[in-house]
Amino acid sequence: MAPPVAVLGNGPVGQTTALMLARWGLPVVLLDQRPHRDAVGSKSIVQQRDVLDAWEAVGAGRRIAEEGITWTTARTFYRDAELFRVTFTDTGRSAFPPFVNISQTRTEQILDECIAAQPLISVRWDHRVTGLAQDADGVSVTCATGAGPAVLRACYAVACAGAHGEEVRRLLGVRFDGQAFGDLFLICDIRTDLPGWARERRFYFDPPWNPGRQVLIHPCPDSTYRIDWQVPDGFDEAADARHARIRAIIGDRPYEVAWSSVYRFSSRVADQMRAGRVLLAGDLAHQLSPFGARGLNSGVQDAENAAWKIAFARRGWAAEGLLDSYHAERHAAACENLEVTSATMRFLVPGTDAERRHRVETLDRAAADPAARAAVDSGRLAEPFWYTDSPLTTPDPGRPFAGRPARGAVPPPGPGILVPDVLIFAAERSGPQTLRALARAGFVLLCASGADLAAARGAAEAVAAPVRVLDAAALPDAGAGLAAAGLAAPGEVWLIRPDAHAAAVLQRPGRAEIAAALRRALGLAGGPC
Length: 529
Known about the structure:
Elements: E1 5-8, H1 12-23, E2 28-31, E3 46-48, H2 49-56, H3 61-67, E4 69-71, E5 73-78, E6 81-87, E7 99-101, H4 104-116, E8 121-124, E9 128-134, E10 139-145, E11 148-154, E12 156-159, H5 166-172, E13 176-180, E14 184-191, E15 200-205, E16 214-220, E17 224-231, H6 242-250, E18 256-263, E19 266-270, E20 274-275, E21 278-280, E22 286-287, H7 295-314, H8 324-348, H9 353-368, H10 435-439, E23 443-447, H11 453-461, E24 467-471, H12 480-484, E25 492-496, E26 502-507, H13 511-521
Parallel strand pairs: 1-2, 1-12, 2-8, 5-15, 12-21, 23-24
Antiparallel strand pairs: 3-7, 4-7, 5-6, 9-10, 10-11, 13-19, 14-17, 14-18, 15-16, 16-17, 19-22, 20-21, 23-25, 25-26
């Protein structure tokens, strides 16, 4: 029997990685040092639309979305007045809302149920990783267990051991540079009735009931609200007048506290996300400020990126060098997330007199001048990263990347960008019905009217990897939905990867040009991998 892929860590990123690897037909052993799942607290609650879409590929997305609370608007207040609100857009016809709030505990339960139904995944609790030895053929993972030492042989490993996975990083020789923040934050999950608050996220700067600091409020299922206060130095959780804090926000209505915690956080990124046959993912590879919900959401994107590349390398569809692009793409994504969240923290928790003056002046200007409100940073919410500089992406001079889009917006479709989800087949058809679902079965060559279908088919047949040629003109709507989403203009060929990112947009290409883009996207040519 072929050796499995070892996934180190059975949190939501590890669960997702295991499910996505099994989806490609690879056996997986999922290890965790804990004796069992610890269902404590809500933890990471905000799940972004494109992450729900990725989870749907393993049978979990719709369930998580249906059980969670949907919200489409983020409101920001200064003292007792609203500064602005952001409503999130969708350039396609996604089946999922922009954001869903649901406790991490419930998300893990749903993913566990998917894992239980997947015969290719073996789960082993009480396995603490104590050694990692690699050779040309695989990885030997040594674990301490209740029954004594155990050694597991794997072809590859994905390390998802979480924020406290120092030993795994040490074994891999990975640095984890960054900083820890001394500021304290208090979380309470409360159950109460707040009419009109159940479909929006609220952020308050300097409210009368937490002067000089901020408060974030998120709705959750079952009439539950997550309240997150910045608290002062010297905060004593045991002596805190929590009842008064809560009453200052919700008034005299009845409530109960479902969970409470005090936390600090760090901002760090691993110096490498590939260490030989081991890929690093999730909080093991990057720790971020929670403002923006970029932690778990980016970890799921790590998982999908890692899974398809390991599968393609393992099945002989691509060279093992394809795995180098995992670091190139996901390290760039981690650095982008670090830059975004660090800018937010400098605004939320200024560390110098100049930063404090900037914050006060910006908020005061924004209260009087709507044009100044773009400078107020209450957290830029999670979004999929753009692989425009990836070694797998064929650039298109006619579609230069304009950089980070405005808050709540998405980049226009193009090379390196996650394609909009578009319904391409009717609901009564068996099999994939949307463009992204089709892509997640392998590469797609999307050919608009006027493109050379024979050239696309010839290029697809020349590689070992699964590639589907899709004729937009032959779709039930003749490609109208694709065109409305900014895809497949006449003569174009779009190469879409198994994670639904565009790898190339080619203008009336011949077979050689399509083949070159396809080989590049497989890590076979055109770049360092």
